[in-house]
Amino acid sequence: xxxxxxxxxxxxxxxxxxxxxxxxxxxxxxxxxxxxxxxxxxxxxxxxxxxxxxxxxxxxxxxxxxxxxxxxxxxxxxxxxxxxxxxxxxxxxxxxxxxxxxxxxxxxxxxxxxxxxxxxxxxxxxxxxxxxxxxxxxxxxxxxxxxxxxxxxxxxxxxxxxxxxxxxxxxxxxxxxxxxxxxxxxxxxxxxxxxxxxxxxxxxxxxxxxxxxxxxxxxxxxxxxxx
Length: 227
Fold this sequence. Notes:
α3 packs antiparallel against α4 (99-115). The protein is mostly helical. It contains eleven helices and eight strands.
């Protein structure tokens, strides 16, 4: 899944509907990401010295897309994206001598954000990957919807994460898994892991590789449960 998402992002595409139902597995255990009805292209901004394309991950939100359980919180709440933009601009323009000009620039961009809601499509896909991994591992959704009014998400996005994991205390999970979920499903996009960090996380380092046979056996058993 992560390799598939990395390939999409490297080619300027954000999926915007990553979830277990859109992961197809053939008889050889090969996984394919499906259903690109909500996918969109990112704007190409430049190419580096090695002719590798770079893209602007900012997506203009004309309407909500994706699936409620797996959508990132910024898809529902534009204030999250506005907060991130405000913090970034304040860091970039920290010169007190041009405070007035900085204020005008920040104010202009904040007004544009409020009129034209935007979010980071790459970071939103990463959140959906985290929610998908949670569902696969825990066999339960992490919450109904990533909004502060949802009691489960409120616990996950709070400083004290233990209150969230207490809800799932009867389902086995390792500290490495819990850390990965917290990092990929952080409320603010700027605090989330990127794909490289996910692959280098302690969760993937400590997890033993599963044989194709055992993987397909597990998939078959779960399919029977669904049926």
